[in-house]
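Notebook B, p. 112. Complex prediction, attempt 2.
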Amino acid sequence: MKTFQQQFEELENIVRTFESGDVDLDVGLKEFEKGMKLAGELKKKLDGAEVKLETLKKEYIKS
Amino acid sequence: MTYTVSQFNAAISSYLSEGLGTVSVRGEVVDLKIAKDRLVFFDLKDAAARVGCFMMRWELPEGIRDGMEVEIAARAGLFKQSGRFHLRVITVVPVGDGALAAALRQLKEKLEREGLFAAERKRPIPRFPQTIGIVTSAQAAAFTDIVRILNNRWGNISVVLSPAAVQGAAAAAEIVLALERLNSRPDIDVIIVTRGGGAAEELNAFNSESVARAIFASRVPVVSAVGHERDTTIADLVADLRASTPSNAAERVVCDRRETLVLLDHFTEVMHQALHRQVERSHHTLETFVRTGEFWFAGLVERLEHARSLLEHLNPQAILQRGFSITKDHTGAIVRSVKAIHCGDVIRTTVSDGQIVSEVIR
């Protein structure tokens, strides 16, 4: 399961390819599909819940 | 009973140590000597008297010098062999502003020479951390501030609090342990070290050598939010990133959810436009072929069909209805080139409302 960061960076790369100039139609279609899918998944992840809290136990230090 | 000398020295040493326990003594350091690179001897004196002190080299904090006013915690004892009375020092702390400032400055210089503050070693903070560790006291206002801001900005993350006292004698050691606890977990992406939040807090622990080294040794990048606005502690200098307040730390560690949504929409727009441009270009090429009366389609038709189904907002019906079609040979493979078919072959052509079966003449 890819992390948000991994997926976001993948999407950034795709967008960069599109921004850099002419893309072959075949390649463009594939990348477009991939990019749209990534964008959709990332948006879903942003709908997230509240922060999950956890507190570690403090061990006592012997003096 | 009659003791031997050895027995007597040992007995008195125990008597003193157990009877008095740990005592606190304040005085001026004089005749500081280090023997064999391991043993530290000095005298503590006031106007009228002095007493011998002893400790190990590695226990001596940086910056303790002759002439400095200090406060020690120690246990009284006799050296077994010489019978000499001494104080076995446990901790020694400079007191008085002058002494404190001097010791701090010396520690800063030493750590800087060792490279603990070097800009090159500061690691980048992950852009989208999933688990954030926080070192502060459990009741700290700073902690609730940070959690509130994280909830506001992102929400879908985990926060692990590793509690430690941030003031008092035990603070430095607790902070070191708290950092180690977080570092021992593989899921922590970034650590925030922060003070409690009270205005009158003393920040000595964050100026200690042990905390500085613990931050430096942390495998996980550390963001410090310790010093008050104009007050930089050593911890702030060693950390990978320094935030001005605990709230600021939370803001710098996570992106804002809304801003990221806007960015994602922008990405979508860029991709749509780029593909639209490409389809338009291909359309144009195709229209040129049709106009010159050529019988074959260069495979662009199939790809346009594909693009059509993706770009729903770009006039979905237009393409097929404009007269474009898909041609397949007798095996069902799409014909992209005149080389794929021969005279006499039967081909099937899909148009907007059905199929046409033809035989190739030329």
